[in-house]
């Protein structure tokens, strides 16, 4: 018996909520098909061209499944076939989808033996292999869906945040920004006045989601700590942000650690207008790009 799941791309941080907020997308998604095998080992097949290592210990999917096998005393194993559509290094949660998809699929075969929180714990081993840090702001929305707040990771405290319907427009300029580098360049200390602005925005954003207050969501999508440092790595960033807002977006910023940029809009018409703006900017700059117009999953 095998089971197939779609592991969605995710947008981490949501501008002001560095390492604590994230949302799941309807597109792009990775496909994972898994079955239980008698031998206590992990076999991985990749149906994609990203040259990802197949040894389970070196593969993000494999590490997450090995963490699950540890919890099951290695009584049996898993055979996994992965088709990735979320490009590694895009900032759209590719490694989180690789880590979360296999354990979610395996858990379905096991009759939901583990809780979602257990699955996040296992998937975080995969995320650590990919980015060097055990952050859960992509993994949690990938597993729970919707918008999630990671209030804490020790111990894990995940809260699903209700939100009004919104469209997400994404552009992935084809440049490389490694999450580890994008974390390395951040300042280790924050000024109190910046911290005050930041927690005002985070609280405003969460309140805006819960109250379905689009205006409040829009004005809370501001980051005075991380974005000024990271945006330097992304050509066209300031133009995309400013012109997307002129085109009707509520706001947005860097998706995860970049290089993708995301914008939230109230309706599809605005989301499509934002896509046109993004395309124009990268055509002019002369960098290859992909765009997506999608909704929250
Ligand atoms: N919160 C993480 C970061 C997400 O911004 O470094 C990385 O995808």
TrEMBL record:
What GO molecular function annotations does the UniProt record carry, in alphabetical order?
homoserine kinase activity
* Enzyme Commission number(s): 2.7.1.39
Query: Broadest EC class?
Result: transferase
Q: Where is this protein localized, as stated in its record? A: Cytoplasm
| UniProt KW keywords | Amino-acid biosynthesis, ATP-binding, Cytoplasm, Kinase, Nucleotide-binding, Threonine biosynthesis, Transferase
Which reaction equation describes what this protein catalyses?
Answer: L-homoserine + ATP = O-phospho-L-homoserine + ADP + H(+)
The metabolic or biological pathway listed in the UniProt record of this protein is: Amino-acid biosynthesis; L-threonine biosynthesis; L-threonine from L-aspartate: step 4/5
GHMP kinase C-terminal domain sequence ranges: 206-281
**One Pfam family from the record:** GHMP_kinases_N
Q: What is its main location?
A: cytoplasm
Q: Provide the GHMP kinase N-terminal domain boundaries.
A: 64-146
Q: Which SUPFAM superfamilies match?
A: GHMP Kinase, C-terminal domain (SSF55060), Ribosomal protein S5 domain 2-like (SSF54211)
Which domain of life does this protein belong to? Bacteria
Family affiliation: Belongs to the GHMP kinase family. Homoserine kinase subfamily.
Q: What does this protein do?
A: Catalyzes the ATP-dependent phosphorylation of L-homoserine to L-homoserine phosphate.
Protein name per the record: Homoserine kinase
* Naturally occurring in which organism (per UniProt): Pinibacter soli
